[in-house]
Amino acid sequence: TELSKIRNFSIVAHIDHGKSTLADRLIQSTGTVQDRDMKEQLLDAMDIERERGITIKANTVRIDYVADDGEHYVLNLIDTPGHVDFAYEVSRSMRAVEGSLLVVDSTQGVEAQTLANVYQAIDADHEIVPVLNKIDLPAADCARVAEQIEDVIGIDATDAIQVSAKTGIGIKETLEAIVTRLPAPTGTRDAPLKAMLVDSWYDAYLGVIVLVRIMDGVLKKGDQIKMMQTGARYGVERIGVFRPPMQVVDELGPGEIGFITASIKQVRDTKVGDTITHEKKGSETALPGFKPSVPVVFCGLFPVDSSEFEDLRNAIEKLALNDASFSYEMETSAALGFGFRCGFLGLLHLEVIRDRIEREYNIELITTAPSVVYHVYAKDGEMQELHNPADMPDLSTIDHLEEPRIKATILVPDDFLGDVLKLCQDRRGIQLDLSYAGSRAMVVYDLPLNEVVFDFYDRLKSVTKGYASFDYQMIGYRTDNLVKMSVLVNDEPVDALSTMVHRDRAEQRGRAMCEKLKDLIPRHMFKIPIQAAIGGKVIARETLSALRKDVTAKCYGGDASRKRKLLDKQKAGKKKMRQFGRVEIPQEAFISALKMD
Ligand code: GDP
Ligand code: MG
To answer: Which residues are involved in binding GTP (predicted)?
Structure first.
């Protein structure tokens, strides 16, 4: 295709502002998909993504469009991951296109996630077309939202398109704007091949499928290619585009977006952001900005039923085939038995993988508290990464510890600002900026990732009644006074409950944790001490008193069915318990005990 007839774009939106619905409408109105094949949220392929309304893999669709000028255009839409965990993947997708539609719900306005992604689009030098969606709703306020886009983001919104992705209003105008307002890609056909690896995934029939954007040169079936980062070489077997089903084409030229297959065995062999070139007469220089993806949040995954360990291994290996950013290694816990220590790009990533194991593989899991990666400096100056608080070396050998910090951006209505500042302060935050956009405040904080990883977002939502939006990026490692806190139940240390805490907050955290556990652990026939300790020193303690009566004693005599129900309930509850010495701890305790209020 001629460069001047190509438009590559992405859609930037906060969750639920209508990105998927708009994509569906664009695909449908151009006849890319026949009405009878149309299903909702066409681009969100995986069930779990569909349910949660998030995109994890970059999806793409090629749309043919005859514009008002009578010309035939090829529009390539890349649907980018919509969550902070995948910020790097988003940045690569953004580099693969020249423009963005900025979709803002006209009943809601700009949110923090919109901001993060729109800044990525601005960084990638995109032309940005604002789209005010959901104008069919009575609460739509286009003038206010347009003004807000100008105030907060600083882009011109006078020509914002008013759309209802639901009813179809403004879809034609959106297509015309893509053609007339977004620039065509540039690139040279005769130059050495330079293609960006935008994303990759595993297909049971075709092996690894690689999504590419051609910058320069031409890629054809049978070409011998080289990945510049990994040095790996392959022969291109298939080459094609998504409409959205795969359609084989002869070649991909400059400006085009499509896929290749090349007998690549594992997704791990492909690195997002890598440059693909020809093995012979290839490009000398790689595309800028490549970064290897590193897991930032770790947790242990253990089967509730220990006989399912091999099933869990199988599930994890299968999932890892398709997800290079997810890491795992076997772990044994005194408390939980055999399991895996797994690394994720963020909390959402963790939740998605955990849900998939539970649902697709039907394995019930115990998830230990998520932990960030600490840098432990020994007295001899050597640095070690600590992925699991349980592995913390002896204090006497340690010089100091460093923890990852983030820059968090929060947008919140004025009324809740005080609560948000307090929350950030409580989590050891350092305020970097505070500004206003209309009646909303934008606060920027430097925060320790470990204070955020667990329940920060839940807390933020609850103190702001859901009105705040939040986004973050990693900024690096800094030292602080951090210690490992252990928990002992009935005098036995429960390794899965070990956490890293700031020394000044240890007592408070320890107390809160013991109180929580006291509520979460059912009473036994004997008294159970619950303690929090640093090193050998107990810093908090609670005692769970002994159970006096049989639960069934309440069901005086006759009512057999009620009695059976109670026993069944007990049995179901038991299944989710783990035995620690003589004490049974319910599965949910491992997560709940660590929530800080
Ligand atoms: P995404 O998270 O940005 O992909 O948002 P979705 O496309 O999944 O839309 C979120 C919700 O908003 C869904 O329930 C849609 O049906 C609804 N929605 C999307 N566009 C419109 C619109 O123009 N009008 C109305 N009334 N609802 C819409
Ligand atoms: Mg969506």
So the answer is: 16-21, 133-136
